UniProtKB/TrEMBL annotation:
This is Aldehyde-activating protein. The keyword Magnesium does not apply. Keywords: Metal-binding, Zinc. Gene3D superfamilies: 2.170.150.70. Residues 14-130 form the CENP-V/GFA domain. Belongs to the Gfa family. InterPro entries: CENP-V-like, CENP-V/GFA, Mss4-like_sf. The keyword Zinc applies. The lineage of its organism: Bacteria, Pseudomonadati, Pseudomonadota, Gammaproteobacteria, Vibrionales.
């Protein structure tokens, strides 16, 4: 549980937005930021975001739902959302934990995710669901 990143306190109801501001989310973070990580799967390597998780009911779209676009690949289990105007990835429904959203820490208002320091790297290349 991370209750502050840099000088920014993590609020119980924290807003997040894409770069252009058309998409605005409210995240329920009563325990602060949980499970921050990077992933080395094919999409995460390319987007380079540091993500954390909330339960599915932990994200509410305040504005711009019509601007969100869905991207799916491979098994089409995970649902990756990004702003159709500025291209910023905001959140995704997780493949490994479909009852959770991963969200882009860089979208949290006032947060610089690079102030977290070392962030664990998850092995997304060797996903458990791909193992026989």
């Amino acid at each position: 549980m991370i209750k502050q990143i840099g000088k920014t306190p993590i609020l119980e109801k924290h807003t997040a937005s894409c770069h252009c501001g058309k998409v605005v989310l409210e995240l329920s973070l009563p325990n602060g930021v949980e499970k921050p990580r990077r992933c080395d799967c094919s999409i995460c390597r390319r987007k380079g975001a540091i993500v954390a998780s909330v339960k599915l009911d932990g994200i509410r779209i305040l504005q711009g739902e019509e601007s969100l676009k869905l991207y799916q690949f491979n098994t089409h289990t995970a649902k990756h959302y990004f702003c159709s105007h500025c291209g910023i990835y905001t959140h995704h429904q997780r493949r490994s934990a479909p009852d959770e959203y991963g969200y882009n820490l860089g979208c949290l208002d006032g947060v610089n995710p690079y102030e977290l320091g070392d962030v664990p790297l998850m092995d997304g290349v060797n996903h458990p669901a791909d193992q026989q």
